[in-house]
Structures are given as structure tokens and as C-alpha cells.
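ok so i was messing around last nite and threw this chain in just to see what happens. nothing serious, just curious
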Amino acid sequence: MFTCVAMVAICSIQLQMPYTTQPNWIESTDSGITMDVCLFDVDNDNDLDAVTAQYDYENGARLYLYLNEDGVLSRDQNWEASPLACFECVTAGDMNNDGFMDVIAGTVIRFPGDGHNYIYYNNNGSLSESPGWTSTDSKDTYSIQAMDYDRDGLLELVTANQSFRLLFYEHDDGGLSTSPDDVFGVCNNTTAAIGKFIGINGVAEEGMQMLAGWAYNDDMITGRACIDIYELEELGSTYPPDPLWPNDLPYNCRFNWAVDLNEDGLTDWIGNSGSVLRRGICENGVLDLTLKPILLPCTEGQIYDPVYRVYYADIDLAIDNGPEIIVAAPGIIDPASSENDRTMLHASNRVFTIDNWTADQPELSEIWVSGISNRSTTAIAVGDINSDGLILTNETVIQSVSNQSYLLNGGLPIEYVEFVAVNGNPVQFHCDRNRGLLSLIRNVSPGSLPVNVRIEYFISYKQDLFCAMVGHNVVYYHQAR
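result:
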């Protein structure tokens, strides 16, 4: 099958680099292989702390916490979790509605009986060293997310797993189920399905939907992806759920995100595998997937992993035309190396800006290259870690029966929520800062719906970059414009 790729013009523009070439923060000890990182406020002091997920197939590894005090991130580990496991992914959410964010982690199978998901509860800013909740299943978890998909004010868990599975853990007044509903055991003749997923709104209809992107192989050679948008409420009541907008794509997209690319208030889709970036622009509730894919460039001598980790964040550069692209480049084994000497090839991390996301042949500008090129970057996260670029923002949204979840800042990261009120009365809420997704706890509205909901939250024009790496993790602080 022939695929036409957009010929992207590479432009050199005079912009101040968003980051210095060398990191501003390096952890004090080598923490091994870090597979994921989550930035969130552990102790409710309005500073972003960092929790990392470590991987060690031979011996098992742990989760680590780096506390942030007054904008200074500790270089030492302030907490570690048991049991030893191969942690693949980590996120955060207030699973017990006590006002503190708990740590949620997924693992891959290292030995029989391993591969569980875990929740480490946060007691007034102090994380438990042992999990307070453990799933019964043993399926490799590659992505994990907390979301209130049935709008009852309690966060459920959703995981993307090996063997084409998307698993849902129900949460009601009796607690969070330890056994999942295997909702997406419906991809026939597939051997693996790994995807990112996200709760979004503004795509197909009012309310909160879910975008699931799949990458799988029928014959271990041919890659395909299936991107479906679901009404989250159906996920808890219908099996299998009927997608609001299904689409079967003739190409592989391992990493998928939902974000407003062209700043029109509608949620778009971007996905990639390798250095090929694909776009879906939302028009009238339908994703237009006819735009040519974009081939992200790499300079001579640099080799990118086939899964080419691309992260999207608005880091507020001089050209403000939608999200910029942050490329995290993992290393790969040199195919010319011997079996006894597996030499690793590496590539630098990069930042690109795109002039027009909706253009068939957009112009790409490389504006930053990291100085570290001899170690693999496995994951990245953005946030104003040193709190030097905060801006208070407020929105008034409408709460209705079918819409009690809101996408803030166009789906781009926010720093923290200061205040949420319904008809002037403060209410409790859940917030996923990485995706700008806020939902209310229970039906807190007095009287009849709809009502106005006022939300005050902080964004930042200085997004610091945390790079999870093999060896020492590092942070690049965003420079002033």
C-alpha cells in the first residue's frame, strides 16, 4: 500500500530557544530505567511534585517521589513504593475523594502472578509505601488513566493492555472493583494492541467522550489502527459499547493524543508511530483524516526508535499557532553490534513548531535540540516546576445533566485549579492537569440544571520539561521569552 507523506518545509527562524541545551536539574543518583513520569501536587502546596515509574526486568523496581518545595524540586528520592515490579506507567487521581491525589501505577508481567495495577493512597500529603488497592488481573499495562466515565463523582480506572485489551475497573459506593470488565476483547485476529487514551469533549456531542487509538498487527508485519470515540457513560452500561464515531485506519499509530490543534475550541486528534505524524481535524463533530501525514525530520547520524515518542504541549513560543511538538528520542540497539556487546544508538530530544496544523503541507521549524544525546529518553512530562510563569485564568461553563466534565485550556496542560463554584458555592472536583480535564464530584448543583460553573485555574507560559531517562532523570527549565 502506498502512503503519501506531506513534504514538510523546514524553516530556520530566529527564536529564543525554549530551553538551554544542558539540563538545569539532574537527580542525585542513577535511578535505573525510568519508564514514565507524572507531575502533580502530592501535598497540596501548589507546587508540582514528580513521581516516576522504574523498570527492571531482572530484579524488579519501584516508584519514586521527588518533592517540590517552593519551586525547588528535590534531587533525592523522598519516597519509594513496594512491591518490586516492572512499572511501565504512572498517573494520579483522587480515588477516594479526600482532596489528595493518589498514585496509580501499571506494571508489565515479570514472573507468574505479576503484572498487576496498584493504587498508593495519599494520607494528607503522605503517600503509603504499600498499595491500598491491587488489581486481580495479570495483563501487561502500557497506559493507565483515572476518569469518571459514568459521571457519578467517583473515578474509575481504564487501562490499555497487551493483547488488544482495554480494561475498565468500575467504582461505586462499594469501592473500586479489583476485577476489570474486558470491554475491548473485540479486535479479531490481532496479537497486540497498545494505545493511549484520553477523556475529551467537544468532538461528537455535548458531554465527555473517549478517544481510543489502537496499534496492532494481524500478521506481525502489517500495522493498522482503530480510533473510536465513545460516550463514556455507555462504557459502564453497554457491552460492547457502540462507538459514536468509529474509524478503521490503514496505518499504525501507537501514540495518540486529543488536543485542540488549530485553537477553534474543538478537540482534534494526533497520533504517530515512528517519525510519521498523523492528524485528524475536527469539523462539525467529525474528524477529517484526509490530511497528508507529516514526516518529522531527523538530522544525519541520528536514529529514532520505531515508536518515536512524540509529546505535544503549548509552550507559548513567539509563534503562537497551536501546540508545539516535543520529540522524546529513545535509543535503540545498534544492529551492527555483536550479541555480547549490544551498543546503544541515541538521539537528542527536540522541539518543533508547525505554522499551520490544517495545511496539507505545513512548515516545520526546529527551535531546540537537547545537549544530551548519549542516553535514552523513555518519557517526558511538562509543567511549571519552578512556578515562575503562572497566570490566573477563569472560565464559566454550563453544567447540564449530560455535561459535568469540562476541557480546560483546549486540552493542554494546566498547573492547578484554584477554585470551582456552582452558583457561587465552592464545590469538590477532580482534575487531570496533564489533559486539562475537570469533572465535578457527584451532582453538586442546587436546584434544577443547567447552571453556571465558575472555574479559576492557573496556566503557565513557561512549561518546564521533565525527561525520564535511562540513568539520571533531568529537567530543563523554560527560559523567558
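not much to say yet. DSSP finds one helix and 46 strands in the chain.
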